[in-house]
């Protein structure tokens, strides 16, 4: 298995982003891709959840890579669960001390920072690979394409993500899932496990390139190739018969031993039982 295949180099954090992330210990990074579009209602719920999460000390900072930050995409005010009214325009203008909105963020550098604890994403392939490689848990809001499939794999197979439904977004649901992803021990363990697995598999891209180069070089040595051409790369079980490849001979011997022992034990029990019965009959006579 090869991948994820990542770039050899990524742009570093900008000074502004570096200062913001270094000044916050529990950062939520948010990016939904360049083609992100949703309703004003959903935009409001997403932004409100960030304000509420900060107020409730679930997180202490948000970096939102938002291509379109027009005030027309948000309501003028947000009504928080405690009844407080919050103006959206100051937040969009980066006047909130704990929310930083930018049109572009060097995503890999943000995710790779130790203070970035969670990735709120659409679940695109590139974002998924970078999240796995950096060991960052994900809250996924799929919009279409392969994103739903990626999200399901991240949740069920990798165990590092939870999903949201774009047709039924709820602020309390977002908050509870952010809190769970940040504090659940299984999520933490799975994130570390997938991080190291992704890094090991990512290095195998060189092996794939080496194999292709080997094939091209070797095929140029001899125009007529025989069956032994790739013998070094064929797994041992492929060169064995069906019985040996599947260890059926070993299992067969084990079964014979087990049944033999069962037979011996059965005969011993029968012998002891018969001897006991004969002894009782002798005493009665």
Automatic annotation (TrEMBL):
The keyword Transmembrane helix applies. The chain crosses the membrane at residues 250-273. InterPro entries: UDP-glycosyltransferase, UDP_glucos_trans, UDP_glycos_trans_CS. It comes from the Eukaryota. Belongs to the UDP-glycosyltransferase family. PANTHER family: EG:EG0003.4 PROTEIN-RELATED, FI06409P-RELATED. This is Uncharacterized protein. It comes from Rhizophagus irregularis (strain DAOM 181602 / DAOM 197198 / MUCL 43194).
């Amino acid at each position: 298995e090869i991948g994820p295949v990542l770039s050899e180099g990524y742009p570093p954090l900008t000074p502004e982003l570096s200062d913001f992330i270094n000044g916050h210990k529990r950062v939520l990074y948010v990016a939904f891709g360049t083609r992100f579009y949703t309703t004003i209602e959903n935009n409001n719920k997403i932004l409100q959840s960030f304000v509420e999460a900060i107020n409730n000390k679930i997180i202490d900072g948000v970096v939102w890579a938002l291509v379109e930050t027009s005030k027309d995409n948000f309501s003028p005010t947000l009504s928080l669960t405690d009844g407080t009214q919050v103006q959206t325009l100051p937040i969009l203008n980066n006047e909130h001390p704990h929310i930083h909105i930018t049109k572009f963020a060097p995503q890999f550098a943000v995710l790779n920072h130790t203070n970035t604890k969670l990735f709120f994403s659409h679940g695109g392939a590139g974002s998924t690979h970078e999240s796995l490689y950096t060991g960052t848990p994900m809250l996924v809001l799929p919009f279409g394409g392969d994103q739903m499939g990626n999200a399901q794999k991240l949740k069920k197979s990798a165990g590092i993500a939870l999903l949201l439904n774009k047709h039924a977004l709820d602020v309390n649901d977002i908050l509870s899932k952010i809190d769970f992803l940040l504090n659940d021990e299984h999520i933490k363990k799975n994130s570390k496990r997938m991080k190291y697995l992704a890094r090991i598999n990512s290095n195998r891209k060189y092996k794939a390139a080496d194999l292709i180069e080997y094939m091209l070089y070797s095929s140029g040595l001899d125009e007529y190739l025989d069956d032994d051409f790739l013998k070094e790369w064929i797994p041992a079980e492929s060169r064995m018969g069906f019985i040996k490849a599947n260890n059926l001979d070993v299992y067969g011997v084990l079964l014979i031993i087990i049944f033999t022992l069962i037979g011996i034990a059965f005969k011993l029990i029968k012998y002891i039982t018969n001897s006991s019965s004969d002894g009782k009959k002798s005493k009665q006579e």
